[in-house]
């Protein structure tokens, strides 16, 4: 079997040139992978741009960046050695930002989502994992994100931090972080107890269970001075108990039927069975001795396998090999090592669908990837992409929680081995305030001399309540230094000043409407730095419309001497979604009210019948008189567990053939 997989891997590499479409593509990555909505944290957004043949785009190719949360220091940049980079500064509102990178000259666009957390303490939970082992039976529904395990005589094992659970049967709802078990034994804090039925909210360490427990019982009364004393002894009882790390107590309310009820996921389109699974609830699941089951048929086996928990969930076989716009698309990972602390693999990819259209990118790539993780203490990775190409890319990244108050993240890249890029972020919590230092640097190794450095330092107090107002205030100091040296230019800039950030505590306007807002004001002065007051503010209103629909309106105000002349001062963003049995709609539109910049993205889906589906996607981005419009349509037919369809792309202006997993339900 091992030799067969290796032969398959070599064969895929040999087929790399088949079906490469002439479509420019952008790959967008973010580092770090998650950040805090504190109006000062920075994220490096990198956009690797390649032309239709897979070659890196020429230096100077313009790339426009936009985001629905936060702001870019320089929203318009150009490529250097095929990569354009922009620094995203966090806003004051938590949530998922939709980041768009557009290369108008190449008619290419790519979109990625980035999560801003409400509190820095949540960063640690992003790296936690749950380990499940069951030699008899272990399977996960990729559709419902539920993992089940069975083993006689407590043969199914689950471990999460200090929580250890052994059971005959258990189910783990990954998205809800809930465990249900039968005939189980739980060890957690002071709890070391057997249960007939068990429900546990893992991340809260709370739950209920049925089983025997010790309860105090009054056995008599004895005189004690002028008073009497009650004599009690501990006796075994059976019933419903509340579970907490400190111990057990009789439940004050009855259990609901859903507390102990297992979910039936036997009809899931895609299942993965294994001997062991390691679940990172925010990212991925790693499987040992995995077997992929599609529509009840065993289709693939892997000694080691990994699936993502984010994004769409097509049939797994189509994640590896599919037909995209009449071209072969391959993304084949060959795992060398897969365990909670270390993952290494070789990946072959070609014909990728990067962006929102139906087109396939050109070029074939052989990558070597290593990722490591030490729980909530550290994580990182190394990637050598394009081993088979002259324009290969080296990338190293690492996150480290040095102690309970200090975190560090660093990144190092060498695009095409012609330049080197590095970034560093350090945050330290002191008594009553916190300090953050961020820096990026780019330097050429070959060719035309080029060097660019940026350094930013921010100190900010912990939140202070603004009297009786539902507002928190943060006072701070900020300093920055920038320099740029090239063959024709040598300039530097430095600034220092004070800042004030205000954060509205989220307000519930009614049962279905929620208001949130934040504002940051800064006063800077320094060498070659624009003087004056700068301000950034955001207000959002979210409303549930009922019937599976919702809408959000976001207003952004930016008064910054550097960015405002490019993007304007006022921006309005609208987001809406609707889900029904036969149709789905997702819309996002933004417009600068005092600058020529606007854009929208629309996704429409309709189920014509049980077998036929329609899908339409369109995106538009306009800046200073020039615009980029891309749209695609798909008519698909369900054949077994797969969709076969005809596609049309405005970019290619021709019909294409698609063989894919389910696009929408």
From TrEMBL:
InterPro entries: Ig-like_fold, Invasin/intimin_cell_adhesion, Invasin_dom_3
Signal peptide: 1-20
Invasin domain segment(s): 24-112
The keyword rRNA-binding is assigned to this record: no
Alphabetical UniProt keywords: Signal
UniProt protein name: Invasin domain-containing protein
Protein source organism: Fimbriimonas ginsengisoli
């Amino acid at each position: 079997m091992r030799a067969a997989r290796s032969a398959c891997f070599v064969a895929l590499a040999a087929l790399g040139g088949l079906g490469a479409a002439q479509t420019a593509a952008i790959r967008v990555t973010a580092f770090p992978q998650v950040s805090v909505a504190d109006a000062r944290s920075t994220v490096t957004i990198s956009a690797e741009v390649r032309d239709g043949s897979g070659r890196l785009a020429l230096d100077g190719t313009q790339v426009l960046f936009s985001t629905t949360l936060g702001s870019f220091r320089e929203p318009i940049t150009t490529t250097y050695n095929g990569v354009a980079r922009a620094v995203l500064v966090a806003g004051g509102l938590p949530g998922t930002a939709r980041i768009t990178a557009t290369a108008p000259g190449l008619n290419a666009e790519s979109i990625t989502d980035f999560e801003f957390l409400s509190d820095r303490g949540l960063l640690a939970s992003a790296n936690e994992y749950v380990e499940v082992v069951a030699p008899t039976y272990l399977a996960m529904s990729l559709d419902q994100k539920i993992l089940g395990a069975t083993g006689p005589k407590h043969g199914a094992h689950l471990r999460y931090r200090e929580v250890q659970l052994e059971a005959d049967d258990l189910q783990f709802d990954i998205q809800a972080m809930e465990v249900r078990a039968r005939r189980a034994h739980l060890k957690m804090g002071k709890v070391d107890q057997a249960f007939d039925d068990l429900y546990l909210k893992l991340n809260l360490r709370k739950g209920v269970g049925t089983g025997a427990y010790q309860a105090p019982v009054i056995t008599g009364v004895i005189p004690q001075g002028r008073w009497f004393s009650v004599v009690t002894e501990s006796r075994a009882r059976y019933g419903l108990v509340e579970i907490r790390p400190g111990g057990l107590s009789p439940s004050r309310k009855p259990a609901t039927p859903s507390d102990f009820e297992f979910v039936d996921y036997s009809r899931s389109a895609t299942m993965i069975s294994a001997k062991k699974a390691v679940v990172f609830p925010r990212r991925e699941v790693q499987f040992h001795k995995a077997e992929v089951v599609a529509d009840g048929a065993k289709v693939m086996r892997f000694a080691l396998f990994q699936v993502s928990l984010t994004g769409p969930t097509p049939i797994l076989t189509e994640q590896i090999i599919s037909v995209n716009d009449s071209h072969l698309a391959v993304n084949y990972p060959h795992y060398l090592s897969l365990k909670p602390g270390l993952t290494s693999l070789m990946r072959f990819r070609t014909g990728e669908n990067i962006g929102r259209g139906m087109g396939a990118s050109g070029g074939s790539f052989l990558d070597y990837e290593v990722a490591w993780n030490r729980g909530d203490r550290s994580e990182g990775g190394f990637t050598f992409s394009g081993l088979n190409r002259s324009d290969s890319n080296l990338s190293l990244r690492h996150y480290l929680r040095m102690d309970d108050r200090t975190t560090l993240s660093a990144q190092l890249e060498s695009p095409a081995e012609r330049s080197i890029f590095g970034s560093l972020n350090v945050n330290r919590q002191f008594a009553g305030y916190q300090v953050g230092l961020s820096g990026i640097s780019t330097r050429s190794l070959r060719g035309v001399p080029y060097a660019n450095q940026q350094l930013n330092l921010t100190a900010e107090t912990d939140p202070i309540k603004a009297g009786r107002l539902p507002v928190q205030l943060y006072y701070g100091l900020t300093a920055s230094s920038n320099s740029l040296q090239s063959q024709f230019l040598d300039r530097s800039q430095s600034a220092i000043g004070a800042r004030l950030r205000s954060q509205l505590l989220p307000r519930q306007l009614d049962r279905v409407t929620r208001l949130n807002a934040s504002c940051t004001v800064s006063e800077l002065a320094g060498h070659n730095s624009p003087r004056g007051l700068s301000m950034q503010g955001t207000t959002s209103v979210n409303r549930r419309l009922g019937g599976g629909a919702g809408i959000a309106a976001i207003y952004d105000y930016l008064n910054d001497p550097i960015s405002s002349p490019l993007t304007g001062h006022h921006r309005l963003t609208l987001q809406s979604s609707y889900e029904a049995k036969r149709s789905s709609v997702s819309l996002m539109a933004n417009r600068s009210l005092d600058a020529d910049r606007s854009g929208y993205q629309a996704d429409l889906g309709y189920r014509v019948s049980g077998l036929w589906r329609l899908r339409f996607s369109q995106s538009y981005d306009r800046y200073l008189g020039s615009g980029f419009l891309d749209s695609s349509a798909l008519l698909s037919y369900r054949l077994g567990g797969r969709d076969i369809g005809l596609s049309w792309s405005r970019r290619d202006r021709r019909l294409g053939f698609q063989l894919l997993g389910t696009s929408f339900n």
